[in-house]
Amino acid sequence: MTSLPRPRAVVARALLTRVAGPDADEARDRIHRTPGPRWFDPASPIARVHGDASMFVAGIRALLLQSLHPQVMTAVADHSGYRSDPWGRLQNTAAFIATTTFGTSEAADEVVAIVRAVHTRVVGTTPEGLRYDASDPHLLSWVHLAGAESFLLAHQRFGRRPLDRAGCDEYVAQAAVAARALGAEDVPTTLDELRSQLTAFRHELRGTDAARDVGRFLLLTPPIPWATRPGYGLIASAGVSLLPRWARHELGLPHASALDPLAQAGGAAITRTIRWALDPLDPVRRPARDTQAATTSAAEPVAVDEPA
């Protein structure tokens, strides 16, 4: 790891180990430094969003929102190691996002093939008798929509430099590339299409016992040391504050909006802290961010949505 003042290095190492595993440095170099063509330019909106510290908040929101689809949630409960190995699951997800966003096209194709192979084994039936299949394009679309909206919404609220409207549309179009590669169909390519498709899923969503159990696990009993729980609490509270009120109600979470400004102030503070810790370790993406700032600093950021 790059030489850092000790407090900064301790925070950076703890974050990297949790998200990317004990071989985080090697994985980062392999993804970012391996030469070859890539799916996306390093200055593109998707690199800007997925490379920002706001992804920590976005991840909590995405998991909670995705859990509201009963078939998706049952698949996770039956086949995922989210309880027995939550950090391993997080690291796999983070590696997929990082590889498809920043890695070579060859590496992206390989990781997509691995995930598609895993999905063929994730089949079953919900307690209500509904069949699920992780390769189902409809279920893949829901997971994609909830994730893409969460990543973009958190970036617009907590990101270093929020995107303008054209940048948001481009992000949605770029995020669709990995979704289609995994087997999702008719995925959105503009912000308006993303909003419309999310609304179309509303009648399928509800807070099952399994979904509420995931919420309690993520928010009340996370498998992290007590010393790190205050910081995690800020991340989690910010993620919840970005959920629409109906989703919070379904999950049995507080859904009054009076405390949202406080939660989002905490989210902004913890995101800045994460960025402070990790920025010196990000030499590959720094030039791209600086270029992006120079070319878009005058653009007007756009709000993605307001929880309702």
Automatic annotation (TrEMBL):
Residues 285-308 are annotated as: Disordered. Residues 48-276 form the ER-bound oxygenase mpaB/mpaB'/Rubber oxygenase catalytic domain. One of its GO terms (molecular function) is oxidoreductase activity. InterPro entries: MPAB/Lcp_cat_dom. Pfam families: MPAB_Lcp_cat. This is ER-bound oxygenase mpaB/mpaB'/Rubber oxygenase catalytic domain-containing protein. It comes from mine drainage metagenome. The lineage of its organism: unclassified sequences, metagenomes, ecological metagenomes.
